[in-house]
Each structure stands twice: as structure tokens, then as C-alpha cells.
Amino acid sequence: MPQTMITTEELATRYVAMWHETDAAVRRETIEDLWAPDGANYLKSAAYQGHAAIEARVAASHDKNVIQGKNRFRARPGLQVVQNGMLLTWEMLPQGSDTVLAVGLEFFVLNDEGRILSDHQFIIS
Fold it and tell me: Cβ distance 54 to 115 under 8 Å?
């Protein structure tokens, strides 16, 4: 089924929210909305391709960082878009605190519908 174009701002907002979404069905739906079916998520030490693999990766991160670690994520201002590339910087913070524990950068390559073909994660600090 053809999907409608999403804006880069909507993609960024939903992407960050997805990592601390508690409902697995909502996370799955978000992944299907944001990523192309053959989309991929690349880390320094691993790669995940396709919705099922990305869903497993997000669920594991959610368990480790949100449930066990009691953290949350937020986007930093300054979303940048050039052609089909998008750069998003994010922070991980403890729930109920503004102390930044980690900073990461995501570089996305988007398809013509604005969905993620590849998501390359870089940990800054």
C-alpha cells in the first residue's frame, strides 16, 4: 500500500519518541511508518536491516536504556536536511533530570517518500 510523504520534522519527532515508547505495537507501527521495508540501522558494531531486525534492535535498546537504565531521549535543536540526507543530534538523559548522559548523531538517507533507507548512528559522548 503506498504511504504518504512525511516531513523531516515529523520523522525526527517520531524517531526520538519511538525509543522510549512503551507499547510494542506502537513501536512496530512507527518503524513501519518511518523506515522503508528494506531500510537499515547501522551502529559501529552492528547492522540491522528490515523492519523485524530494526524492531528487535529498538526493543533491546528500550529495555536497556529506558526500562532498566531509567533514561529518556530528546532531540537537540538544529535538524539539518540536504537533498535526501538528514542529520539529527540527540541526547540521553535520566528520567526527571536534565543531566546529559550521552550525545549521539544520526545520519539518515531518505527515499523519495521521506522514509529511512539507512540510519547511521555515531556516539559523540
Answer: no
